[in-house]
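<instruction>
Derive structure tokens from the sequence

<record> Sequence and structure tokens follow
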Amino acid sequence: MLKKSEWTRRMAFGAACYLCATGTAMSWDRLYVFGDSLSDSGNNGRYTWDGSRHPLYDDVLAAKINQSLRPSDEGGTNYAAGDAVAVPALNPQDNTADQVSHYLTSSGGRADADGLYVHWVGGNDLAAAALNPQQANQIVTNSAFAAASQVQTLLRAGADTVIVPTVPDVGATPILLQTVIQVGLAPVADAALAAAFQSLNGQATPDRNARNQAVYQAFYAAAGQASTIAVLRQAIAGQLYQAWQALGSQAAALTDRYNQQEEDQLARLSGNIVRVDINGLFNEVLDDPLRYGLSNTAGMACPPGLSAADCTSASAGFSDAQAFLFADRLHPSPAAHLLIGDYIQSVLDAPAQAVALNQATLAMSRDMRSTLDSRLQQQRHSDNPQGSLSVFGGYAGQRLNYSDNFAAGDGDATTRNLTLGVDYKLTDRWLVGVLASGSDDSQHPTPRYDYKTRGWLVAAWSELSFFDNGWINADAHYASLSFDNIRRSVVLGPATRTERGETDGTQMGARITTGWDIPLGSVLTTGPVAQYALDYSEVSGYQEQGSSSTAMRFDDQNYHSQVGAVGWRLDSQFGWLNPWAEVSYNHQFSDNVWRAGGGLKSTQTSFTRDSAGQDTNWVDVTVGAHMPLGDAVAAFASVSQTGGLSSGEQFMYNLGVSARF
């Protein structure tokens, strides 16, 4: 059991993190919410204890996009209301059909394309089904179809991304135990409920077995209000427990039916549907609550009969003996709301993290080109006669610092590349060559996403000099990469999960570079340079290896890069050491937003996310040198640094040797 002081510290820390959260800049400018009491931020109430002080899960999501969520009754964008259902016939006063209609009416029939939407309903529909056993299946079917239809309405009206959580198992909420006691012990229901929850709240439930035992003990305590005879008390407790189990199985079946039927309908829709498996997460918490900072999953902090919307920690009968999953008979505790907010955010962020895989394909080609450029610089200013054959080898690397250009914060990467090549001087002015290179890289684009890459690349190039002072070279390459040990960390309250995967990718690219050397004396030349590079990367989709509620699948990714550069360079020919320098201005003509898609493995729907916008303009500063080590052997090296990048910095280096035959 968590000590009260420890529980208080965790809750205070969670609330503080919510209040001061700025989050990564996302592609949405507002959050719109439709649903029932799980999402209501004030239309009919805030359904957790001390609701005015504690954020709900949707408050957490709103803070991530730098928004403050307000109820629609106060002019805000949260239309959710306690007791709402999906089908108006079940509750004409509060239902999500009217919520969606009211929103679209206020917006002229068009949904905000830059908004993020939540549509979460079904708990009250399931309660209505449980109270009408003869019509239960039909009620569930109608409600599931209605909920999916409302999501479709939002998408057709222009909504880009809609979060649709599954409904958690109502059979595992305290209301079931409360109902069994009220029916089975009606004459002494109030006293029996008080005794049951006093017993239940006094016990920790570290797993399901302990939870079941705690529930039985609660029924035994309740039965004591009906009889003091031990044998009769045990018999009553046993009957109550059996009724609880039977009703729980029925409620779980109805919940699964609702979730699956809504899932089937959502899968037929086109659009960005973020299906999050709250029911799956809920069951994982029941299995191991201590991992998530909870110690009791069967009781509730608020006394029986008091709604979480009216309950405070100062209310008579309020219990702080445990770290509760439930605030009252149906609604999550503040800690559970933070957990749900963490979970939904992790699913939203995942594709935006996975786009970082394309960084490895680009890094490998940059390393190869760095080595090749140093080698070509050496060749242009060396005495290599027609018919000469040369071999060379080079080692290149990069240190990249990513600054908030992916979801969930800053990161870095380290690359290592070894290149071996051969070139041949066809004529006095024409050089051709081929090379092969291999890479072994470590990428940490965000604190919660990292991977390793191994790959190989082959390239061919040609260089031609003209009019004594001009030169032009072209190269083309093909690369194949393996992404190993892809790790995505998911923070859920005090718990951290790691989902793992692996995949592969390819890249094709070509480049043309030209320059003109203007003599500045016998040993110095200077002049303009220009370059155009075209790269196309593809990363295969993959599935994470786990089967939990956080395990995801990701779609294939494609990235198209067209970078043009103009610059100026200075070369020297001192003989024993030949330094050179170049400054270039670069512009990205193609994609400046990277996109990836995916979804939970446990669902059929998928959605896409864009990374934060990449830089379209930057400056490269490169300095290098080449020096002879004998008549036929020479060395070369260079370092390069980017400037003007809002998304981070890139430092690149290479060194190598060549031998002529």
Notes: The longest helix spans residues 230-267. The CA atoms of residues 294 and 323 lie 5 Å apart. The chain has a mean pLDDT of 91. The longest strand covers residues 470-492.
